[in-house]
Amino acid sequence: MVIDTEILKEDRENTVENATSDDQYSIFTGNSNPELAQKVCLYLNRPIGQAKVSKFSDGEIQIEIDENVRSKDIYIIQSTCSPVNDNLVELLLMIDAMKRSSVRRVTAVIPYYGYARQDKKVAPRVPISAKVVADILTNVGANRIITMDLHAGQIQGFFNIPVDNLYAAPVLLDYIRQNFKDQLVIVSPDAGGVERARAFAKRLSAGLAIIDKRRTMPNVAKAMAVIGDVTNKVAVILDDMVDTAGTLTEAANALLENGAREVHACCSHPVLSGPAIQRIHTSEIKTLVTTDTIPLANEAKNCKKIVVLSIARLVGEAIIRCFRGDSVTSLFV
User: Fold this and answer.
1) How many CB atoms are closer than 10 A to CB 102?
2) Cα 322 to Cα 163: distance, rounded to the nearest angstrom
3) I need a surface site. Which of 76, 183, 209, 265 has the fewest CB within 10 A?
4) What is the Cα–Cα distance from 112 to 97, expressed in whole angstroms?
5) Quick one: CA dihedral 127, 119, 63, 34, positive or negative?
6) Burial of 199 by CB count in 10 Å (0-12 exposed, 13-18 middle, 19+ buried)?
7) Three-class SS of residue 229?
8) 325 in the Ramachandran plot: left (φ > 0), alpha (ψ -120 to 50) or beta?
9) What is the pLDDT of residues 120-163, one digit of tens each?
10) What angle do the packed helices 194-204 and 169-179 form, to 10 degrees?
11) Residues 186 and 227: beta-carbon distance below 8 Å
12) Nearest to 212, CA basis, from 188, 244, 229
């Protein structure tokens, strides 16, 4: 089930009333998430820039910008989701094409920043891939990055250019307030997500619980214990992304074993790879609420437990505020 937050016509008109007369910025997109780009352009009352993003017969990416962009501010909306490397190369080549077309500035709008989980050395002789991607984006010519809910906040420091890290919290909070009223507890699935869960719990005047998780290998997790009171409560597991859903299902089992009445989940990025959909379908989780930073595959679209909220308004506001020089932080205060 897909639910898009309503983009009201009067909101669009009020938001862009000072921008519609100024034709000095354009929005382009690659092939990773054209639906989100269309919603952002609808919110900003602007057309999507004309560009050809295709492949040669041997698989090489081909980019061609089909309109004049000289001296404009350019915003390229492209999540580096699956196929990660193809989408990343599309973004890099689009940035290079723009720079060679004499644009004023290029902002890479990356709702989902791939490779973000590889943000530190967790074993000898491994790369810090998030830093490598940051270096490539900077060196190819990006002037600013707009992204959402980075897996680790310190990734902003990997860049030598400005980074605006947006948060899906306003969209998710509105949904939680409307659908979960009483006896609510926000659950962090691991120690790393406690700060995020605490912020949600404070805004919702809800309880807080933490799952003590032990990971034995990549994409394999075992929830061991629940810290906090979840007895007879509606538990909402909060994470930045759901990949194979192993953490999610183990956490749900642990919560139910500790007396939770029902379990729901919220995340910003629906990676949903491998056995994720099957695990969610057969689990005790009632709903998985996520956003459209990553487009859902057909199997995920057919899963009735998955609810998708749109972050188009947040991204659109960030773009127009960056263009005007207004505060982006005030979106989340």
Assistant:
1) 11
2) 11
3) 183
4) 22
5) positive
6) middle
7) coil
8) left
9) 999 999 999 999 999 999 999 999 999 999 998 899 999 999 99
10) 50
11) no
12) 188
Residue with tokens 């932080």: 329
Q: Which of 39, 72, 213, 233 is catalytic?
A: 213
Give the pair of three-digit tokens for residue 127: 């790369």
- Quote the tokens at residue 121: 């050395």
What is this structure's pTM?
0.90
pLDDT digits (tens, 9 = 90+) for 260-315: 999 999 999 999 999 999 999 999 999 999 999 999 999 999 999 999 999 999 99
**222 in catalytic set:** no
Contact call for residues 32 and 87 (beta carbons, < 8 A)? yes
Place of tokens 């506001």: 317
Exposure letters 272-287 (e unless 16+ CB within 10 A, then b): beeebbebbeebebeb
Residue 308, SS3? strand
